[in-house]
Amino acid sequence: MKTRVLWRCAVALALGSVALSGCGGRTDAAVSDRSRDAAASAPDRRDGEPPAVVVDPAMLGAITIDVIRDREVSRTLVVGGKVQFDEDRLARVLAPLAGQVVDLHVKVGEAVKKGQALCAINSREVTAAVGEHIESHKDLDLAEKTAAMTQDLYDHQAASKIALQQAQNDLAKARSRVARTEEALGVLGLRNENQLAQFNGRVPISSPLTGTIIERKVTDGQFVQTDSMPIITVADLSVVWVMGDIFERDLHLVTVGQTATVTTTAYPGEQFLGRVDYISDVIDPATRTAKVRVSVPNRNARLKPEMFASIALGVGEAEHVLTVPSRATFTEDGRTWVFVSTAPGRFVRRPIDVVQDEGTERRVLHGLRAGDRVVVDGALLLRQEEEKRAG
Questions:
Q1: What is the pTM for the complete model shown?
Q2: 373 DSSP β-pair partners
């Protein structure tokens, strides 16, 4: 009997030992899980922030971090704008007469010099005009000789005064006719007598300025009329206009001659300096804005007409502000966020308030402090990691 009791006690002790061992294993795993969760919710996490994202060292190479600091920034007024041609450097070439386009030498995009031949127009009308001009010179020579001879005869009382007056009247008419034909041919660019003597029926069309061919409406052999439709457009793009709209409440901040900085989405981080040279004298009743024009030197023709741009106008003294690179921010659910590095390989998503203006920097109103380490490149990767954890 005593032996049976001892055997039962031994079995009970063995089972108890196994049960304690199993409980100990589960406790260690739970502790490990809690430790990992604690690492993702460290003291740097603020109230309302999502859990931190922890990445392995291999992924850190794809993430760029920058320390944000206070910067001295001038107070600026930023308005949207659009690049346009400088109308003083734009020439729309019209057909001076009806005829056939020949000798077309240029294509869109080609650079041309002032006075360079663009094409020619073959016209029977101008051929007739040149013929009339040559004929008028012959008539003038005859009228001059007749008037001189009649004057000599009158001086020797061999001709009447009426005959002299008739000869002088014919001479005046001949001179008027020559002047009229010369003026008509001068409009077509035919002013040289040597050109007229060798004229082949083709009127040359020359570029009125140095620039680039931006539009060509004709082809070789095409017939054109003398209307308001330009056949070729030449533009000097070394200087362009950027037109913007200023609300009437901000007009007192802008003056002619004021320096302006132009930025575009086409060239991130690049600035073009210009100067305000015109402010509209009237207000658009629909938008309550006035047009402002900024003249901008356009080196290498990087600014293209019709390109959208932003105009930043300095309107006050410089002040110290906290800024964050625009590429570090992203918008989700109507809020602006950044990822802040709180420890090596550990990142916290943080909501911030910024001034949503153009340019490479955003002015921070709330949510960050000087010295915070912000993810500049790699936010998309961290957002994907968040989605994996949520899934």
A1: 0.59
A2: 67, 341
